[in-house]
Design a protein that fits this description.
Layout: H1 4-11, E1 16-19, H2 26-31, E2 35-38, H3 50-53, H4 62-72, E3 81-85, H5 89-92, H6 94-104, E4 111-114, H7 130-148, H8 154-179, H9 185-194, H10 200-215, E5 228-234, H11 240-248, E6 251-258, H12 262-265, H13 275-284, H14 296-309, E7 314-320, H15 324-339, E8 343-349, H16 356-371
Parallel strand pairs: 1-2, 1-3, 3-4, 5-6, 5-7, 7-8
Helix pairs in contact: 4-6, 7-13, 8-10, 11-16
Bound molecules: iron/sulfur cluster.
Iron/sulfur cluster binds next to helix 4 and helix 5.
Length: about 375
């Protein structure tokens, strides 16, 4: 039922906290001797979600359906608690379902929540959220101490922040290796996604090892003809056959604006001993994402800057079906990018999408446009 990474995590003796996407406070859980895992995707493939389907409508996104299925099925016995913040409306509706479902299964799960104020950073709208966030995190720490018998230490917190700085830095270096063709993009995705089920220390060792291997590969060993460079954007990267179709059409993936990848490791604030202060900065200064509503004003300029820095002339939006946050934003981004001479292609990725051949034709036509 569990892969080797999860077995190792369970054997570490740490309580496992299943964190709802998108950007949970991993440093805090790690510092308190807990093992956070972000419930994006799971140790084993999940083409179907029977345990979720009796609770959740089939027009919810695949992230929510897989997360629910994992926790409600026997596999969810690996989790000792759940953490969530108000990342999106779909996720916001899940805690009651999970609390009820796990209680009915005889293994009730503690659910820990913080509320993130989604207010604007513009001058007129700017309000003091620091005190509110500090209170939310003080409450979370107290709940974790009571529930799991762990203790917060400012010293361990700063140490953990530094460990995650290293992890994110290694991810950025691998990101660049993928952009230079020193590691295939699909392999890069597999590597980063595998770390979600590892302890922080194991992530550092694993990423360091993979990076060392990529350094032995000379840049741009690609023999195929490249006709254009594109950026991939979305919540999740598209499935491997779609990535292969993009590269097979002659496009090089020069970078990404994907929530599980670049948006998650692009940047983090300077270490601080106080979790309230640290997470105020962490969320305020986060790389823009449509789920962080207050980053909306910076979203286009940041994306365009990334496109320019990577020398891309096109963006492929891999739209997670039923994710209204991404879909509301697409028309705006597409219009603005078009005005800048950047080509765009929007693909819809569904939970059990078998229609890669239909996407392939559109990708090939897009590649001609980007290369033309
Ligand atoms: S894909 Fe969209 S709707 Fe689904 S969990 Fe992520 S942000 Fe929410």
């Amino acid at each position: 039922m569990y892969n080797d990474d999860l077995i190792r995590l369970l054997e570490s003796g740490r309580k496992v906290i299943g964190c709802f996407p998108l950007y949970p406070p991993l440093e805090l859980f790690d510092a308190m001797g807990l093992a956070p895992v972000v419930l994006w995707r799971f140790p084993e493939p999940m083409p179907e979600t029977p345990a979720s389907d009796s609770h959740l409508q089939n027009y919810a996104c695949s992230v929510a359906r897989r997360l629910t299925d994992f926790i409600l099925s026997d596999a969810g016995g690996a989790i000792d608690g759940v953490f969530m913040y108000n990342a999106c409306d779909t996720l916001r509706n899940l805690p009651e379902i999970l609390e009820h479902g796990t209680r009915a299964a005889g293994r009730p799960l503690p659910v820990h929540r913080v509320h993130m104020p989604m207010v604007g950073c513009g001058q007129e709208q700017d309000v003091d959220t620091a005190g509110f966030i500090a209170d939310e995190f003080a409450g979370l720490i107290q709940a974790l101490e009571t529930t799991y018998g762990v203790v917060f230490s400012a010293e361990r917190f700063e140490k953990s922040i530094r460990r995650f700085e290293t992890i994110r830095d290694l991810c950025r270096q691998l990101d660049m290796a993928a952009a230079q063709g020193r590691i295939p993009f699909a392999d890069f995705v597999r590597v980063v996604h595998r770390t979600w089920w590892m302890s922080a220390a194991a992530q550092v060792d694993f990423l360091t090892g993979v990076l060392a291997e990529t350094r032995e590969v000379s840049p741009e060993p690609v023999t195929r003809k490249i006709t254009g460079r594109v950026l991939l954007s979305g919540i999740l990267p598209p499935p491997v056959p779609v990535i292969e179709a993009i590269e097979g059409a002659g496009l090089a993936i020069a970078g990404n604006d994907i929530a599980t990848l670049y948006r998650a490791y692009a940047k983090m604030p300077a270490p601080a001993a106080d979790p309230g202060r640290y997470y105020h900065q962490f969320y305020r200064e986060h790389f823009p994402c449509p789920t962080l509503l207050y980053t909306a004003d910076e979203r286009f300029d940041t994306l365009l800057d990334l496109i320019r820095r990577r020398g891309a002339s096109g963006v492929i939006f891999a739209g997670e079906k039923f994710c209204e946050y991404e879909y509301f934003e697409y028309p705006y981004l597409e219009n603005r990018l078009k005005a800048e001479g950047i080509h765009t292609l929007r693909l819809e990725i569904a939970m059990a999408d078998a229609s890669i051949s239909a996407l392939r034709t559109r990708i090939e036509a897009f590649a001609e446009m980007v290369g033309g």
